[in-house]
Amino acid sequence: MSDPLAELNRLQERDLELDQIREDQSRIPEELAQARVHLRELEIHLGDLQEQLNEVRLAYSKLDLELQDLKSKREKAKAAQAQATGAKEQTQYGEQIRQLSGLIEDLEGNNKDIVGQIMPLLEQIEKLEAELAQVKAQVEEARPKLQALEAANQERVDALEVQYQTKKVNRDQLAATIPSAIVKEYESIRRARKGTGLAKMTKTGSGYRCTACNVQLPMHVAQQVHQASKVVRCPSCGRILWKGE
């Protein structure tokens, strides 16, 4: 008659193989992880640049509208000055034209020493547009590379899944040959103990130890394990103890 705990040990070996496959499936290759981070950083940078560009364009549009309004007012003042008949009126319109010209110069500058508010915005827009185009090109280059890595990783995961399902069938067939109560208890312990529900008892100089938690076992526990008349669990870690083959 076969030892059910020996069969349970073989079942655990298969379960650990299945666990390893699941772990391998969840592990992201370093190259793929780096490619994901790289593309994400580029997309964030691209979004930041686009937001900056939108803000600068908005500021430029407001100043440009203000500039056009000032120029329109100046043209009207010039037309009114040309039609004015009195010296006082001409002087008043002349002062208005002078003030409007000063405001216009503040916005668009001149060809000498005044830069104006609009020119720096235009330069900033040009710089941001160039940088935006560069980052867009980097994104377009990085995206297909990432897609290729994702596809290769999916192929790897799918191949591992085929292995998993094949081994799972063999594992379930083996489990069916072991008393269901023992399998149920083992699986419950395995879930609680992160993978192992069975531990081999080993002989040491001063007695016996559980190989899972390395705690020395009381002599009466070791004797019960050797007798193999019932399922005995480690009093420390709670795993099923097996005397070995």
TrEMBL record:
Question: Which Pfam family, any one of them, does this sequence belong to?
Answer: Zn_ribbon_9
CT398-like coiled coil hairpin domain: from which residue to which, for each copy? 11-192
Tell me which stretches of the chain form a coiled coil: 32-90, 118-152
Q: Where are the transmembrane segments?
A: none
Where does the C4-type zinc ribbon domain lie?
209-241
Enumerate the InterPro entries for this protein: CT398_CC_hairpin (IPR056003), Oxidative_Scav/Glycosyltrans (IPR052376), Zf-RING_7 (IPR003743)
Report keywords, A-Z.
Answer: Coiled coil
Q: PANTHER family from the xrefs? A: PHOSPHOLIPASE C-BETA-2-RELATED, SCAVENGER RECEPTOR CLASS A MEMBER 3
Identify this protein by name.
Uncharacterized protein
Q: What broad taxonomic lineage does this protein's source fall under?
A: Bacteria, Thermotogati, Deinococcota, Deinococci, Thermales
